[in-house]
Amino acid sequence: MGQAWGFGRYGGPEVQEFFDRPDPVPGRGEVLIRVDVAGVNPLDHLLRSGLVDGLDGGRPFPRVLGMEAAGTVLALGEDVDGLELGDAVFGFALTGGGTYAETTVLSAPNTARIPEGLSATVAATLPVAGTTAVDVLDQLSLPAGATVLVNGVGGGVGLAVARLAVGRELRVIGTGSTGKREHAEAIGVRFIDYTAEDVAAAARELVPDGFDGIVDLAGGASLRTVAALAQDPRDVIAVGDMSVTDLGGRFVERRVDRENLERSARLALDGLLAPVITAVHPLSDAPAALATVENGHTSGKVVIKVA
User: Fold this and answer.
1) Is the pLDDT reported for residue 25 higher than 80?
2) Distance between CA 72 and CA 140 in Å, rounded?
3) What are the backbone dihedrals phi and psi of residue 216, each rounded to the nearest 5 degrees, phi first?
4) pLDDT tens digits for 172-186?
5) Would you say the C-alpha torsion 234, 150, 200, 190 has a positive or negative sign?
6) Which residue in 25, 128, 133, 290 has the fewest CB atoms around it within 10 Å?
């Protein structure tokens, strides 16, 4: 038996609970891992609220929160290739196992070995934020010297996109609230504080001819504001708001396979995809970890250290 933190029904934070569960049995194409570190993402509370379908694996309640983790392989299901018992790995819990737990199952095709020299803490941030950053910038495919606007730069994904863009020699402008400025500017972002400035006016002053690319992480009305700043609407890539297609833009094309995880890990080792980890919580403090992300009060990446 091991401790886990999840939810007994769909709803808000009031449905969350700690509970004990037996170690999951890895099914076909899964690996059982001892969780060392779990990443915390906005997707976690969206799943708890019942706003996202298809990622629960059909598992009964109570369900465990969390989508990404790093840890050690304890058991292999059938038809698992490229991973062995005892491997240090990181990846996605795409079949509903959750990651805010002492042990869990990861989808083997969406799991990779942690390369020597990369910590489990950093590795646990890569499945969501790291691979998303790679995907959006690959999709934009901008040349060195181009300008990119990261709308909502202060979170884990936004800072990962910005750091990787700076490494690709792009000129990066980012929007966020006042508390997000320090971390964004530290990696070379020209910051626009949407609480103190008119975003459209400030952006046009910096880039009068329009942006070569825009990565939107905010959605809603903010997406509609920044989409008008692109030279070409097709170069607006949204991560969370699929209505971007109504504006002529594109939704991010996600690649969550082992190859992309390995690529993200290499970039992290080279310092080109260095996550900004601003809080490390024990599993007992998981409610506070998720609350910080859900309330939008954190800059950078929050993780839960389990082992």
Assistant:
1) yes
2) 35
3) -105, 125
4) 999 999 999 999 999
5) negative
6) 25
pLDDT tens profile 52-75? 877 777 788 999 999 999 999 999
Going by pLDDT thresholds of 50, 70 and 90, the confidence category of residue 22 is very high
pLDDT for 231:
97
**What is the pLDDT at residue 307?**
81
The model's confidence at residue 165, banded by pLDDT at 50, 70 and 90, is very high
Q: Are 94 and 111 in contact (CB under 8 A)?
A: no
Q: pLDDT-based confidence at 18, cuts 50/70/90? A: very high
The contacts of residue 147 (CB under 8 Å, 6+ apart) are: 170, 171, 172, 173, 207, 211, 212, 213
Give CA 202 to chain center in angstroms. Answer: 28
Beta bridge partners of 113: 89
> What's the CA gap between 98 and 283, in Å, rounded?
13
As a whole number of angstroms, the distance between CA 64 and CA 197 comes to: 40
Helix (H, G, I), strand (E, B) or coil at 304: strand
**CA-CA-CA-CA torsion for 278, 98, 257, 294, nearest 10 degrees?**
-40
Alpha helices (H) in the chain, listed in sequence order: 42-48, 120-123, 131-140, 156-167, 181-186, 199-206, 220-227, 258-269, 286-294
CA geometry: angle at 41 spanning 80 and 99, to 5°? 40
Closest by CA to 23, choosing from 77, 68, 67, is 77
Q: Return the amino acid letter for 293.
A: V
